[in-house]
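Bit of a strange request maybe. I'm writing a small parser for structure token strings and I need a real example to test against, not something I typed by hand. Could someone generate the tokens for this chain?
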Amino acid sequence: MGGSEKALYDIACLPREGYFCENTVIHIGRVRPITNICPVNRSAELINITVDYVPRDHFIELVSYRDRLKQGFSDTLENIAEEVFIEIWGLIKPENLVVTVYLEDEYLSDWHVRLEKGSCS
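Reply from user aminoacidic:
Good idea to test on real output. This should exercise your parser:
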């Protein structure tokens, strides 16, 4: 998304109670590559995002998360990582959170950005 644009889909959450034990690490792996429009050269590039977290009271509802990412982005990898991190942190306030954004375009250099609060090891 980037900038001041509003997401068409918001990430939903569900209560953790009854689904996961305490200190369970949830890993949301890579999905289909997501289109990002590079703000520097305005060309399309493929990215992907992984999320690891330990939920407190709520966890991310996966379908809404995937719908949110399908909208694509138009920003730097650093800003995308920060946007996703802040959105998830604000929604579920997990014990720990790691968001990694990968550049998946085979014609561009291997690059990723990782934001972390706590440890999901």
